[in-house]
Model the fold of this input.
Amino acid sequence: MKPYLREKIPSGFDEIPDTTSYEAGYLVTKNAGWRNVRPVIDTEKCVGCLNCYLYCPDGVISRKDGKVQIDYDFCKGCGICKRICRVGAIRMEAEK
Amino acid sequence: MALTAKTLDETEYFYGHKACAGCGGSLAVRIALKVLGENAIAVLPAGCMSAVGFNFPQLCFGNNAIISTFAGTASMLTGVQAGLKAQGITDFHAVGFAGDGGTADIGLQALSGAIDRNDDILYICYDNEAYMNTGIQKSSLTPFGAKTTTTPAGKNIHGNLRQKKNMFEIAAAHDIPYAATASVGYLNDFIRKVEKAKSIKGTKYIHILAPCPTGWGVKTDETVGIAKEVVDCGLWYLAEYENGSFTLNHEPKEFSDVSEYLRKQSRFRHLTDEDIEIIKQSRDKKWEFIHKNFKKEK
Amino acid sequence: MARQFLSGNEAFAYGVRLARPQVISAYPITPQTIVVEKLSEFVEDGSLKSEFIHVESEHSALSCAMGASSVGARAFTATSSQGLLYMAECLPYAAGGRLPIVMMNANRSTALPWNIYGDQRDSLSQLDSGWIQAYAENAQEALDLALMSFYIAEHKQVSTPFMANLDGFVLTHTYEVVDVPTAEQADEFLPPFETENKMSLTKPKNLGFSAGPDTNTFFKYKEHTGLLNVKKAVTEAESRFESIFGRHYSGLTENYRTDDADYILITLGSISGLVREIVDKLREQGEKAGLLRIRYMRPFPNEEIAKAVKNAKAVGVLEKDISFGNEGTVYTNVNSALQKAGISIPTSDYIGGLGGRNISPGEIENIFEELKQEKSAVKFLGIEVR
Done:
């Protein structure tokens, strides 16, 4: 199962578990705020080789219609995807 | 047929974690879990990957996962597999992800015990060549010359004076069913190795070099490139140990420039030409050994 | 039920076999070895179906047991002294993880100086680790405790690891006639281990996580509550035990002739047998002596002790440990119990049996004699200059 964002943040005494075990893949915060730059895919140039998907440390690149898409909620903007892309289909843009 | 980017499990099992941007270790964990699938049960000791993945209530493993004590990765893995086996459960993969310090220093005894017992576990060491989680201190896998916070580079001492411990051959010396080296710069090779390990009963050890941009002093987008370069310049190698013999998986036609590899990392920037000569010599000695003792992949 | 001539270690191993642990991980150390040797034999002869793991250290013994428990398997290990200290990191880890592992500890002195004989400094040094701590007096109690320990540890409202202590050599190696229950009886007593606190393929979980300053106190309070619930679980286990096996146990403490006693000696473990004899002897002489045996050091029987000694004129504590720079740990705990209950009577600490030093009947009689002076003091048996 892929970890995903939940609405409820268990924080009160009665909300937290009795033991140090909890549902796997329970996310309550995003990583979007870490970024200075964001990768942008040029779908015209993208050949769908999936190299960027393979080498992304955060796994935020996924397949879509033979190309790729980025989950900006969790992309940290490291730029590995841009460096690994053989066809120059990814550019880094400054976050505003 | 070997798995590729196109055939790999699309599910992300390690997601939303707080690793530094461009973290090589998180890439190794992510890819290994995609190969092992949803029935992987991961054990991670104190270290970067547990620190970034298990901050309640932000829990970043989609599969079963637990933090072990720093020294106890392998022994906890043993317990996990024995506990499941005793309940008649067999369709799982007990996998450990420990850093270089957690493996070659504090966790070595437990790892040796597990290999000796041939427990059915896969132990993956993500080697970023220092104690990164605590702020870049020297481990026994820190290479010669590297500047860390406990091996500062000054006039008198140029960083770490010791060579990197040879964990791959230490694992192999136990006559382990399967051991391999890998690099996050060559993920298809790593994927193939994890896939192979998945199919072998008994203890498996994979040692993957996983650069840490923060500790190595490179840009966040250079992780993969530098992990490729360390193999290309011959300071790391891709190999396997199986059925009592070593195999070299990848022979660079010609080594790329060692000093170029070193000088782009701030941890090596202080090295003199003499220091680099020492590094080259030890590389050449290693490759002499490899050529003599390792089979070449057909 | 069959009567057998067994040492404390063997009796405990028979008890463990009856509990059918699914994973046993152990490393040898004197005087614990016989327990794990016996269990290995049981696994070999097929009378115990268990994964027996020959770990390479005590740290790994408990780490392995934690791994097994974290996937819902019943796990057992055993150790002693230096071994207990070597695995010390794993003790609060297992307790914080609420993993109901059972461990037998053969009480032994801790180095330096080296010494293999019995005292209780090893386990008492780990009182704050979050484990249930029980102390057996004899081989029968050792066997029964082995079986009951799993019931108590795995109790839904407890879910806490259990350390069962047996005095090294004096109990672990002394042979007695012991009733060994049948497997059918044991199965009736002890249900299979079930927990939600585990990694399972059908319901994946993340275990052993970090909890920051905001929730950390909550987790620790819940851990504390688990230990406090042990009292209820012990009562439940012992009444269930009595109905099946016919043997009675008295909860966190055992009171012997304390009801009208003026002078009560509090102790734990195997020395209680001798104290009981002295109490009888003194009673025959018209002295109002009593014994309070602490069976559980954690949770600490504050109310039970206060209730038993409230009418006494003075209380002594006889213990095989010393918290250096202060006093015996049992004494500290007893004084705290009395203070909280508003009981203000003289209390004295007698530190004896260190490194296996014999405690003689005369010394115990002398303790009762000194209690009559009704003065508080901390004394070492065998040392005149204090």
The domain at 2-245 of chain C is CATH 3.40.50.970 (Rossmann fold). The first helix of chain C runs from residue 8 to 19.
